[in-house]
Amino acid sequence: MNTVAELKELPKDQKVPYEAVVVLRKSSIRKARNDSEFLMVEFGDKSGVFHYICFGNSSHYQLFLNAVEGTIYRVQGSTDYYQNRFSPSITHIEKVHESEVQRYLDRLVECAPIPVKELWTELQGFIAKINHAPLKETVNSALSELEKEFKTIPGAISMHHAYRSGLMEHTVRMCRACVSLLPLYDEVDPDLALAGVILHDLGKALEYTGDLATTKSRLGHLHGHVVLGYRQTRRAAIKAGLSEDLLDRLEHIILSHQGELEWGAAVKAATPEAVFVSMVDNLDAKMGMVQYALRSTPENQDFSDYVAGLGAPLLVRKPQYPA
Amino acid sequence: MNTVAELKELPKDQKVPYEAVVVLRKSSIRKARNDSEFLMVEFGDKSGVFHYICFGNSSHYQLFLNAVEGTIYRVQGSTDYYQNRFSPSITHIEKVHESEVQRYLDRLVECAPIPVKELWTELQGFIAKINHAPLKETVNSALSELEKEFKTIPGAISMHHAYRSGLMEHTVRMCRACVSLLPLYDEVDPDLALAGVILHDLGKALEYTGDLATTKSRLGHLHGHVVLGYRQTRRAAIKAGLSEDLLDRLEHIILSHQGELEWGAAVKAATPEAVFVSMVDNLDAKMGMVQYALRSTPENQDFSDYVAGLGAPLLVRKPQYPA
Amino acid sequence: MNTVAELKELPKDQKVPYEAVVVLRKSSIRKARNDSEFLMVEFGDKSGVFHYICFGNSSHYQLFLNAVEGTIYRVQGSTDYYQNRFSPSITHIEKVHESEVQRYLDRLVECAPIPVKELWTELQGFIAKINHAPLKETVNSALSELEKEFKTIPGAISMHHAYRSGLMEHTVRMCRACVSLLPLYDEVDPDLALAGVILHDLGKALEYTGDLATTKSRLGHLHGHVVLGYRQTRRAAIKAGLSEDLLDRLEHIILSHQGELEWGAAVKAATPEAVFVSMVDNLDAKMGMVQYALRSTPENQDFSDYVAGLGAPLLVRKPQYPA
Amino acid sequence: MNTVAELKELPKDQKVPYEAVVVLRKSSIRKARNDSEFLMVEFGDKSGVFHYICFGNSSHYQLFLNAVEGTIYRVQGSTDYYQNRFSPSITHIEKVHESEVQRYLDRLVECAPIPVKELWTELQGFIAKINHAPLKETVNSALSELEKEFKTIPGAISMHHAYRSGLMEHTVRMCRACVSLLPLYDEVDPDLALAGVILHDLGKALEYTGDLATTKSRLGHLHGHVVLGYRQTRRAAIKAGLSEDLLDRLEHIILSHQGELEWGAAVKAATPEAVFVSMVDNLDAKMGMVQYALRSTPENQDFSDYVAGLGAPLLVRKPQYPA
Amino acid sequence: MNTVAELKELPKDQKVPYEAVVVLRKSSIRKARNDSEFLMVEFGDKSGVFHYICFGNSSHYQLFLNAVEGTIYRVQGSTDYYQNRFSPSITHIEKVHESEVQRYLDRLVECAPIPVKELWTELQGFIAKINHAPLKETVNSALSELEKEFKTIPGAISMHHAYRSGLMEHTVRMCRACVSLLPLYDEVDPDLALAGVILHDLGKALEYTGDLATTKSRLGHLHGHVVLGYRQTRRAAIKAGLSEDLLDRLEHIILSHQGELEWGAAVKAATPEAVFVSMVDNLDAKMGMVQYALRSTPENQDFSDYVAGLGAPLLVRKPQYPA
Amino acid sequence: MNTVAELKELPKDQKVPYEAVVVLRKSSIRKARNDSEFLMVEFGDKSGVFHYICFGNSSHYQLFLNAVEGTIYRVQGSTDYYQNRFSPSITHIEKVHESEVQRYLDRLVECAPIPVKELWTELQGFIAKINHAPLKETVNSALSELEKEFKTIPGAISMHHAYRSGLMEHTVRMCRACVSLLPLYDEVDPDLALAGVILHDLGKALEYTGDLATTKSRLGHLHGHVVLGYRQTRRAAIKAGLSEDLLDRLEHIILSHQGELEWGAAVKAATPEAVFVSMVDNLDAKMGMVQYALRSTPENQDFSDYVAGLGAPLLVRKPQYPA
Predict the structure, then answer these.
(1) Chain D contact present for B148, CB below 8 A
(2) Which residues form the HD domain (chains A, B, C, D, E, F) (predicted)?
């Protein structure tokens, strides 16, 4: 079985049989010059993408017409080129069975470096640290409704933690930082801070859509993750009977965590907890970019490529302590 | 009866008896050097303000301690000066009766140039133009809960329509512009646009507080009028059974109407109606500044003072058409 | 006859005879390594472009050397490829006769959705609404000198109304909005506002050059459309005997209509008419982007591509009203 | 005879007879509470200002009603205070005769450190260096129409060269720098550069108004000095028969000399001469702030006050070279 | 003994004998109208300031001429007013003895809430955690040269930790946060991060000057604290024999810690340690503003005054947990 | 011998023997799919670049593994294409001897239009004009340590004077302007200004690295040229015994010459010399862009391409003076 990158390295002038496991990322209807419609289907894995053009008279047409973006397929066919772009034929195609998905995930998309299960377990431990029952219940309830999405969604489409399960990794790392820092900042209420950290970006589970091929949802465009997270939290809190004072403050953390209005905050942070959460968010986001640059830079380079979020390339060599 | 400005023009070196009707704008507890507490009370009318210091042994102490900001009082006493500031004594003080308030309003605060009643009636006419019943019901229900505040609140604390009932004036004027422009922009859905115009700033009825002395409320600081308007609209719409598609769009108009993220929009306008409403808002806000500069500039000046929102002083003379 | 896009879809490995009608967009002299000069000629239609390299010994050399950018040609030859780029041979070439141009316009360039003639007639109607004779005469005279350019020039090179006759479409639409709004804003002088709307962007008829291939003219670079429009208006007004007071104000509308200095305004709007015209300009420009996104987005997409001027992709589906 | 500052230092509790020569800076009609009108007249010299209130029944009323801002008066009366502000009585007032103005100028307003006559003579020398006759004629003609204003107007209302004749000083200094630098920059046409330097800010002679009390004129507000300078130059050039190519370029220097659009440039500099003039303008403006800080900082300070245009206080001590 | 605020509350119309301990904040030479020089001396304590004018014939003249800003004096005299400003006479003045200074400090200036000694001891503990000897030696040596200034200087002149010993408080708090967070961010070298935190703002000990009356020093204006801290660290490191690799990185932390170039960073953070330190700096600076707002807001207010560094007033009430 | 551009124009379908002199610009280790490492080597001259892939079993592998970026090679082989990109074989490769480098320089990289030797001689003349011996010694010493780099480094990687020896050209041109302007600005100390001009960008000799293939050095990333120039100057000045006052000021010129903090200045210019040097830098940088646009624009164009640093395309035609 080959990765897409490997297929593209096969000799261009021969039609080589291949087999690959790929995600269907996008399927869109296009109109040919003669007005007949065709489907432009994009397949890919972590190493690259290719397009497959499927006309109405193809045996695969119905399959692709109804295909859900993000579905994983095993495809077979021969390599080919059309107008200088890699355009393999597809002779056989089948959905990869649910039970096998986990096995291929790593080759299909970039994932958080810590397994999802471990992250989830650790997160439960942090929730357990929230003492006030209605607050804990609010967090549990808001989260459980979106558990599936929350577990897979990236931390961002570009910028920091921009890979599968990146949001959960970022949230857990922020919980760790929060718990470490709370003893130093007496003026910050621990329960509110921890609940705020866990829920601050939950709206992204509604803003983004698609399991293996993330894009912005309709509500993501129209409302944005800040308001969606506020709405999800509000509903859960009302159900959990959270007091008005606490709810105002918890919502405020979510509404203000982006820091500056031009970065998408609805208001500026105006409680000790909101200032604290937005600063911890900023710290961990930036460190996430550092971590990613460190692990994705080839060994023979001293500096990573330019990291937009840092405004600089990162020196990736470890400091040398003289023996 | 004298205005505050008139009292300040009386001879400084005599204690002149006076009577005035004023709003209690602010009352705050302060600590004297000897650790005894006293109250610093601010009174004012449209023409100016003065401060009254009330110590614990004063017969008025309890009255001021429990006074509600924005209450109207009739006060009597003598003019006096303390450390060069106007500090009249107060020998008699009584609340102005509810029934008399209307009579004094004009001398106490600046008001919209159109009477509240007329504005409200005109607004009902615009609501009646909304055809889709659940949308009309949403607008009615969201508005009726905040009718009292909506009728008095200014359009902004500074900037445009910054006077009593300014928000309602601005809303009605936007309705007029909206109705005039709709036939020209087919791509804009009339019902959604009109509902959006009426509700776009409704959150200010929750963001601001105080009838005659407007400040930001706790929720104003923590959530901001954009999110508060969204929340008020959402609750009303769910009660009214508005469809999800329409609600998404109506909420989007409110969330995006401020235009730019740095001006407080939660998202950028991304539907024809939202782009339209935010542009009509901008137009009427700027014209509101023009109108205010025209009516508040002394007759002998060619230009108004610098208008911050326009970035220029305004030429207030009418164009001269040769006979 | 084929569009350029169609020619590019013909089999690459055969030389296929073709005939096409195309605009000569650009012809520039280049120097080959051996110091002999050649011409690099760019042809195109609405669907795409290709380049033709013409050496000094070619029979077409003189023709292309003297060719005017924006001329329409009928070309014949065979498809071919050079260094992987589409480089058809040209065996026969002839100018399309003036009388046939209209027939091909639609396939050569994108045009405003309303026919030029209708726009022009409607515009005359708006001019007729200007009561003050010298003002009407100013508008007529300024416009008539540039009628030909005004009728074809786009509203902008990128951004809003960026297609043939887009400027005239934008101007007419602004007239409509202006006339609809004037009854609502008493403080705005109708004659000045209407004249200002019609002339506000007239300078673009001098800033842009080329009928079918628009670029910035020398004066466009050196003076900009704001000053060019001011100059054109000033000359016409002096001829028409417009009074100094009215001319100052009319010129001010043109000089300030861009809104902000960094967007190219020479001064900030400082009369009621100037504030009004710049706001109506902003409204119609944004709505023009909405209209364009609506008509150019493929039917199967919910959202248009990202629209730079809106800062968002546009939701193109109509609202669904439950039956 | 006393300066205003000296008058303010006389004992407050006595009415001391005084005589002073002052500029009438501003006279505005105000309405008293009893609806009778009065005049608020501002007098001042270089050392300070005071206000004189003149009621309708005063013998000076007609005089002040018709007074021209910027007129110089000799006033006599007694010192007095009203509401803690210096409010002297005026028993005698007379216009200072034209022939005496020069004598008092220095104590009335801050002036350029070089005498006007010398600056003007030097400027004529620079004009003489322009070789191309129509260009020289353009400069002479544009300048001569505004000679009186040009000789007295400040370089700016705040910022650099903000004192009487500051514009002429700045222009002459730029000429010197221009002539010194031209031999180093071959690509800059000397005639155009010199003409551009001399005319670049000429529009300020129309933008500002008032001889001894400078404010923005009506045209200053509506058109701004960039466009006014362009218009003045254009008229002179057409009269002088300047060729179109040269006029385009000369106008471009004026339109672009402010450097950035947000600083008021109509277009960005796009010829060698325009880039050069805008850079020399920037250099001399900044050095003008340095010169002013050096001569206005008290001797015992190491640093001047914060200079807004430099973004820093200036170290005013000379470098110390060890003997 | 009275505070300055108390002196100002004494009856204005009597000359009351007083005694006060105050800091001489500023003494500057001024010239009177008659060209004789006098001294304008500013005295103050935490509660307020007053000015004393001392002419050449005064017995105190020599004393004030040679006085060092920031010296503490015990003064006696009588209250008085001149031109409505508090201008007490001084009959007796003497320097407060070194040994007494500590006793008066609290009433003279605002101090960090933690005693200097405790902060210093805690800081020594953090230095001890640095394992690499040359790095520890660098920190010790750089710090010991400026120990006196470092212990007293504020964290900033305005903004965060803007009170005596505020810099040391901020540094110690950052050390605590650093040590708490290091276990979570493996990619950050602990020794470098800790050394960077301790030295990051050390340059302020050279940028600011004056013990009890802080202003910017000459070098503060000319070089700024970032470069001064770099220079101090570099000298200490070379003496301590720190390796080039580690020195480059330590210097980089100091040069980049301000975050953005426009906030004064010489370069953008480009090592894991530099990103980390700048983020921890940001976190603790913002929390310092929160702490200050909490302890300086009167008890009867829900919100603090507007905090410029947060862009909002802070809600100072603690969250209410229902019993 | 062929340029790279010429090689790329040879027929694609034949393997043509070639010989070329090229710079090795970059050599990086990559990993193939089968985990074996290979080298990706980039060669180029002024006309273009190509890549050569060298596997471990190649006879050139060791040579390329140890190759220094910026070395000049004579290569022989045959033209070839791989995946449509020009990938010639290399059969013979040898270093070009030191003595021949000068001969090829012009075809390998773009150079300053004035020969290095002349620039250097002229610079020595300017140094000789510095009167104060320790200042002259500081300049000489700081420069001599970096003479080799200073002579070749570009003025910037992009933007102005971005070609070999561009920094020296820019420095010499600034010296000329400085010497021409000094007589006009008495307040500027000539010795400091000239020393400041010569050293202002010296740090770039440490910020950039590589003779024929310039990139940012490690220190360039971590410290930036402003701080590196400061450090180089400081060391030289201490050795030369420059007084503290003069050193503070010389360092300040270097630290502030970038003008604005966001452009990399460590502090804002706050001495007459620093303001002057930063303005002359700005002037010559902009004129350098003008000069480059003039000499690199093809003769048949009126305007250059868009020049980012000017924000406009430049009109490159000379003004036409009527005969």
Answers:
(1) no
(2) 167-286
List chain C residues with CB under 8 Å of A84. 84
- Average of per-residue pLDDT across A286-311: 91
Q: From CA B30, how far away is CA B105, in angstroms rounded?
A: 30
Establish if A270 touches chain B: CB-CB under 8 angstroms: yes
Q: Answer for the pair F307, F293: CB distance below 8 angstroms, yes or no.
A: yes
Pairing of strands B312-315, B303-307: antiparallel
Q: Could you give the CA distance from residue D110 to residue D13 in angstroms, rounded to a whole number?
A: 31
Nearest residue on chain D to B12, judged by CA atoms? D83
Nearest chain D CA: its distance from F124 CA (Å) = 18
Contact partners, residue B94, CB within 8 Å, separation at least 6: B73, B74
Q: Which pLDDT belongs to residue E303? A: 94
Provide the mean pLDDT of chain E: 90
Is the model more confident about F274 or about C32? Answer: F274
Question: Is C255 within 8 Å of D223 when comparing Cβ atoms?
Answer: yes
Token couple for E301: 């207010």
Closest of B142, B135, B101, B137 to residue B247, by C-alpha: B135
* Residue with the two structure tokens 């990687």: F157
pLDDT in tens, C163-208: 889 999 999 999 999 999 999 999 999 999 999 999 999 999 999 9
CA C200, CA D7: separation in Å to the nearest integer? 55
- Say which DSSP state C97 is in: P
The Cα–Cα gap between F37 and F54 comes to 9
Q: What pLDDT does residue E133 have?
A: 97
Q: What DSSP designation does F10 have?
A: S
Give ipTM to 2 decimals.
0.86
Q: What is the DSSP letter of C164?
A: B
In this prediction, residue D31 has a pLDDT band, given cuts at 50, 70 and 90, of: low
Contact F232, F146 (CB under 8 A): yes
Cβ proximity of B51 and B22 under 8 Å: no
Query: Cβ of B246 and C321 within 8 Å?
Result: yes
Can you read off the two tokens belonging to residue A62? 């119905």
What would the two tokens of residue F298 be? Answer: 């093809």
Q: Does D308 touch chain F (CB under 8 A)?
A: no
Token output for B32: 């004297």
**Distance from C-alpha of E267 to C-alpha of A314, rounded to nearest angstrom:** 12
Residue at token pair 């921009």: A162
Domains, in order of start, for chain D: 4-108 (2.40.50.140), 116-291 (1.10.3210)
Its sign, for the CA torsion E151, E153, E155, E161, is positive
Which chain A residues are within 8 Å of F53, Cβ to Cβ? none
**Cβ within 8 Å, pair E227-F255:** yes
- The pTM for the full model equals 0.87
Contact B275 C290 (CB under 8 A): yes
- pLDDT tens by residue, A71-128: 899 999 998 877 567 889 899 999 998 888 888 888 888 888 899 999 999 999 999 9
Chain A residues inside the 8 Å CB shell of E287: 185, 187, 272, 275-276, 279
Pairwise CA distance, residues C267 & B313, whole Å: 12
Note whether E222 contacts D298, CB cutoff 8 Å: no
* C15, C16, C17, C22 alpha-carbon torsion, rounded to 10°: -100
Residue C245 corresponds to which amino acid? D
* CB–CB contact E251 F222 (8 Å): yes
Give the per-residue pLDDT at E180: 98
Phi, psi dihedrals of residue B206, rounded to the nearest 5° = -100, -25
Q: Which segments of chain B have a pLDDT < 70?
A: 31-36, 83-84, 158, 211, 213
- Residue D278's nearest CA partner among B189, D270, A294 is D270
pLDDT means per 10 residues in chain E (323 residues)?
A: 83 84 83 69 85 83 82 90 79 88 83 92 98 98 96 83 91 98 98 98 92 84 96 97 97 96 93 98 97 88 90 95 88
